[in-house]
Design brief:
Length: 93
């Protein structure tokens, strides 16, 4: 399965550890992984699953923008927002 891992475009000096763990898991399942930071409309693969993460709760706007963009681009894909803001405010995602 083609899986897209998205780190929204916000400032951070830390690596996306959550996405790295997800990438390791998906590779162990035989999935093909694609990683992007922010908005990227040059993806030409058939994506079946999208996982979006955020390190900071205050960075909700780039997360929402990424969810909206990739939902429009890959409307058939399953999208998971794996971030604290999604856990705290699921009705706003």
């Amino acid at each position: 399965m083609n899986t897209l891992l998205v780190e929204p475009d916000y400032y951070t000096k830390y690596p996306p550890l959550g996405l790295l763990k997800l990438a390791s898991f998906h590779r162990s399942q035989g999935d093909q992984i694609f990683y992007v930071r922010g908005i990227n409309n040059e993806i030409d693969k058939k994506i079946r699953k999208i996982e979006i993460t955020s390190l900071f709760t205050f960075a909700w706007k780039p997360v929402h923008e990424a969810i909206d963009f990739y939902h429009r681009m890959f409307s058939e894909a399953d999208i998971t927002a794996a971030c604290i803001s999604a856990s705290l405010m699921p009705d706003h995602i």
